[in-house]
Specification:
With 108 residues, this protein is an alpha+beta fold. The chain has a single domain, classed as Trna Endonuclease, Chain: A, domain 1 (3-Layer(aba) Sandwich), CATH 3.40.1350. 35% of the residues lie in helices and 22% in strands. It is built from 3 helices and 6 strands. Strand 1 and strand 2 form a beta hairpin. It is globular, with a radius of gyration of 14 Å.
């Protein structure tokens, strides 16, 4: 497994990097909430805003699935009319589709 600054690059890290490239291409605002025990459990890996729309992305690799806490948070985001995505290596284009869909909406 390759290393960066003493850390292994996991398959999930590769997904996050690819998503970062896409979000940067669209000039979306985004950040990675810290997972250091001070925040709420289950918060998605990436929080983004594009054209005024809230987007939450849970990154997975391989056949990994969301936990009950992650599903709870993603459902709450959808209930609040935000976009809640679970992205892995096979469906990265789903983010592009959402960004394109948002970009085509008329301005408020």
């Amino acid at each position: 497994m390759p290393y960066i600054r003493g850390m292994a690059i996991t398959p999930e890290t590769k997904v996050k990097r690819r998503l970062t490239v896409i979000l940067n291409k669209y000039d979306a605002y985004f950040f990675f909430p810290p997972s250091n025990g001070f925040g709420r459990s289950g918060i998605p890996d990436i929080i983004a805003c594009y054209c005024g729309q809230f987007i939450a992305i849970e990154c997975k690799a391989g056949k990994n699935t969301t936990t009950a806490l992650q599903r709870r948070e993603l459902n709450a985001i959808e209930d609040a009319m935000g976009y809640a995505l679970v992205i892995n290596e096979t469906n990265i284009d789903q983010l592009v589709e959402v960004l394109e869909q948002i970009g085509k909406r008329p301005a408020w």
